[in-house]
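Hi R.,

Here's the chain you asked about this morning:
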Amino acid sequence: MRSASSVKSVSVDAIEKGGSGRKFWRMHVAGHTLIFVRYNEDRPENKHYVAIARFLAGVGVRVPIIYFHDEIEGLIVMEDAGDTDLWSFRGASWPQRRALYQRTLDQALLLHTQAHRTPAAAELKFLQPVFDAALYRWEQDYFFEHCLGRHFGISPKRLAADADRPRLHAIADELAAEPRCLVHRDFQSQNVIVRDGEVCLIDFQGLRPGLAQYDLASLLLDPYVDLTAEEREELFGHYLSGLFGPGRTADPAFRALYDRCAVQRLMQALGAYGKLGHVDQRTQFLASIPPAIARLREVLARIDGLARLEKLLASVS
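And here is the predicted structure, written out as tokens:
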């Protein structure tokens, strides 16, 4: 028979976080902790989390270690990397945050420059759909439907007249024509875990071929965190120095693609906030709409042909 002390050494705590359609628990067993995950088929990409984790670890990207996976039952047991994410440091001093963001960008650079070149990448049959023109247009429609339409109540007639849809479609075509690497797709502060000064990526089940600038915009324009313009530029320069070589912190062509990817990413995020907040009744996500709108307006102002959409957003800001 087990002693009372052995029973007390085991506990399980639910973890409430994110909108990925999975459930998480932290298991405390004899002084050690593990993360237990249960997923279902509502979002098919969830079942590929384990294979992607093992692939990324093989490339050298820091991700939680997988100890057990039952694909039939939808169960995963993995390393507990902790619950202190990059978002948790939003009030820390800039030198401390800068170091963590730079480590995060170094992980992104490894993903963007090495993952698609490894022999194992050819065996990734389970990736999510490639970022092509259709997917970029889907993100735009997602934004119009759930943010501007559902959340702000803007009529379809006004959206058709004042949202610069032809220019946005052209941007989708331009981005789809660019060479692709592998991208995280949801590369924001709450998907980066910090432990002992190092960073670890999570929620990477959306991995797919796309543009590095999409991930970069996801992090630097993250609506959950307020980075100053100067801080963003410093981090942008850090990434470029790693990509092109020390001292090269500017590249007009890279910047132009970054701005267009930023439009796409922010539209996708705003569409998600509207859907989660109104359709799924997870109203906490609605608080992220104002900062995301502000960031989108900032980027739109730098791209020709989107003045009407920027004016439309100004009317609801």
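One quick note: Residues 252-279 form the longest helix (28 residues).

Cheers,
M.
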